[in-house]
Amino acid sequence: MAIMVNRAVLAHRLFTGITRQHLACLVDELAAPWQAALEGGRHSARGGSRKRAAGAGARHQLVFVDRLVATLIHLRHDLPHSVLGLLFGVDRSTITRAIGEIRPLLAERGCAVPDRPGLRLRTLPDVFAYAQAEGIELRLDATEIQVRRPPANRGGRRVFVSGKKKQNTMKATVVADWRGRTLWTDALRPGRMHDVTAIRNEGIAVCFQHFPDVEVLLDDGYLGLSRDHRGQAITPPRKPRPGALPGRVQQWESDRHDHSSDRITVEHALADHKRWKQLTRWTHRRDRLPDTYRAIAGLVSDRRTKA
């Protein structure tokens, strides 16, 4: 039984999570890279693109716009491929292939830069260079996403067990500005890895060294980073020793509250990401989560920049 739903309805913001204007911009931006990847593909490994006459070859059951819309609906609501195939009137395998083509293109876009149309940030050094040029104080934090437990008797099974969540998770590091706009996300690591280790592996120490004017607000989980980069990696003040004067305790509480109020915007950025259902609990292959998170972060940064 085939069910054909109006494509204009499927492109609504309630399904895709973005406005029609945003969708039109994505179509203009990604159509050419998608076509280039389609023409290259596996034939590029054989020495060049496939040679055939203009107009030859099989016709696509899903045009590019429908592929993009299906991918957005999958990211937003985590609908099964079979359900999307029923809505678009195609086979499940066609939806699977479409999502596999579009998701990497969304992930490679990076995050939008506020007040800089056309400029996007893709690496941590890019973010630090932007922050130093604009005099922006960054906020950094990590979030964990529950994933499936690896099968028994397979190596590395314990690395996904989070000591904090008591679940199998993967950890993503996010950088935001003072208004909660996502500037960068990556460093997806197994949940057992500490937050500081994850961001160190991304080269944050080198970034602090080359951009000495950049300050980053952090929580208590990054005390080691604050110790190594004083004045740049800023964590909450340490609690006074027992028996300290009441005035000093009150000052500590006030300073800690001020730091938390300044850093809360990165928590708002994480909340924006978790509104996309695929990031509330990941039930698919773990190696596809990094691209999914980067794709969603890029889409959220577009919306926050235009807001």
Automatic annotation (TrEMBL):
GO terms for molecular function: metal ion binding. Keywords: Metal-binding. Residues 140-299 form the DDE Tnp4 domain. Residues 228-261 are annotated as: Disordered. It holds the Pfam family DDE_Tnp_4. Its cofactor is a divalent metal cation. It comes from the Bacteria. Residues 61-111 form the Transposase Helix-turn-helix domain. InterPro entries: HARBI1_dom (IPR027806), Transposase_HTH_dom (IPR027805). This is Transposase. It comes from Streptomyces finlayi.
